[in-house]
User: What shape does this take?
Amino acid sequence: MYNPFLSSMMLAIESQRVIQLRLVRLAWGGREGQAEAQSMVIEKVHAAGEAMMTLMRGGSPETVIARYREHVAANTKRLSTT
Assistant: This one.
């Protein structure tokens, strides 16, 4: 059985790592910091648009949460390797 509360909590926990990694990148500044700030805003706008379209097409909130978790995992991987 799917538990939306658990998925939401996992998203919150997983997001903390991305926030930590991004804050470090922003604190270092320079071109990488500026690029990360721009990327962060663009990604958030795209993810919100994607979530809106999913819900408008009849998708479930669980689908939206799962997709956000995919975005978070990709960002964690990208920010951890550089």
